[in-house]
Backbone:
């Protein structure tokens, strides 16, 4: 079963606009990670936020985590056509395997 | 540094045939993962190895899927016999340690399997 669910399923914006994607999950976590997938570069890790962190930045990316609401958001500022991709959140299973469970993703289209 | 290598990139087979995928992780990465990604969905973990031992294979359909990681380096995933619903992209990933311990996973390009 999928732990994280992204919202919206699809998002279309103009180049230069900001894009916000949300992820909700069901059980307690150690960390939450965001990945990007496009046809050119496959699945690539973007950012990791630990359960005791509330916000993290990496370049044009900003991730927030609200453990009380079991939700996270990924903000991409000043989007570019190259940001067109599917974005997945992944949460770890709090068992001995520490395996990651991926959501179904948000498909982002950035129009030039 | 070289990334995760997978082969073949594409494979088309008929149902009930067998198929095998190969993965070579990033050098020094102890943990190796096989995922199945069906079109429009996120990756689903099939099996996770730590060195050459299985950490989790709870979602591996063991009646038809098998995987091994001999010598704790490269790995093969086999499907025998294949069903139509096995059509998907099979992704291999590796990480330095167990992913949940604040480790990112590095993914290969995947093998796109079509079962006719």
Residues:
């Amino acid at each position: 079963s999928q732990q994280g669910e992204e919202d919206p399923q699809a998002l279309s914006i103009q180049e230069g606009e900001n894009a916000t994607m949300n992820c909700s999950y069901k059980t307690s976590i150690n960390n939450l990670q965001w990945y990007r997938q496009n046809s050119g570069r496959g699945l690539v890790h973007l950012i990791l936020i630990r359960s005791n962190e509330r916000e993290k930045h990496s370049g044009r990316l900003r991730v927030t985590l609200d453990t009380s609401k079991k939700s996270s958001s990924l903000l991409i500022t000043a989007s570019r056509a190259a940001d067109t991709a599917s974005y997945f959140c992944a949460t770890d299973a709090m068992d001995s395997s520490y395996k990651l469970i991926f959501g179904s993703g948000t498909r982002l289209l950035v129009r030039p | 540094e070289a990334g995760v290598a997978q082969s073949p990139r594409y494979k088309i087979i008929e149902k009930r045939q067998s198929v095998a995928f190969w993965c070579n992780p990033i050098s020094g990465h102890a943990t190796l993962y096989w995922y199945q990604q069906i079109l429009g969905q996120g990756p689903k973990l099939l099996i996770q190895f730590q060195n050459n031992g299985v950490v989790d294979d709870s979602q591996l359909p063991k009646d038809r899927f098998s995987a091994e990681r001999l010598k704790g380096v490269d790995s093969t995933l086999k499907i025998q016999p294949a069903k139509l619903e096995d059509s998907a992209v099979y992704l291999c990933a590796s990480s330095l340690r167990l992913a949940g311990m604040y480790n990112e996973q590095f993914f290969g390009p995947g093998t796109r399997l079509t079962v006719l």
